[in-house]
Amino acid sequence: MAKGTMRYWAAAKAAAGTHEEPYDAGTLAEAVAAAVAKEGRGGEFQRVVGRSSFLVDGEPVGSRAHESVLLPDGGVVEVLPPFAGG
What we know:
The chain is of the alpha+beta class. It has one domain (2-66, 74-80): Beta-grasp domain (Ubiquitin-like (UB roll), Roll). It has three helices and five strands; from the N terminus they run E-H-E-H-H-E-E-E. It has helices spanning 11-16, 28-37, 43-50; strands at 2-8, 20-25, 53-56, 59-60, 76-80. A five-stranded mixed β-sheet has the order 2-1-5-3-4. The longest helix is centred in the middle third of the chain and has 10 residues, at 28-37. The mean pLDDT is 94. This is MoaD/ThiS family protein.
């Protein structure tokens, strides 16, 4: 298991109720599942995260399966919901 930081932006930040929080997970899928399962988080957070893009230490995850994305110890996961405007 790796320990690091998940950072939330825009709608993800609002739905999470925080800008960032620690993760303790081996893969991106595990980190996202743990974040969704946190007490007090409802369906809106799950919906936003389900539509979000992710960066791991600045590198886009893209279409890779989240189960295959290994998280580094001390890493940063950015959760980027779809943005409107230009």
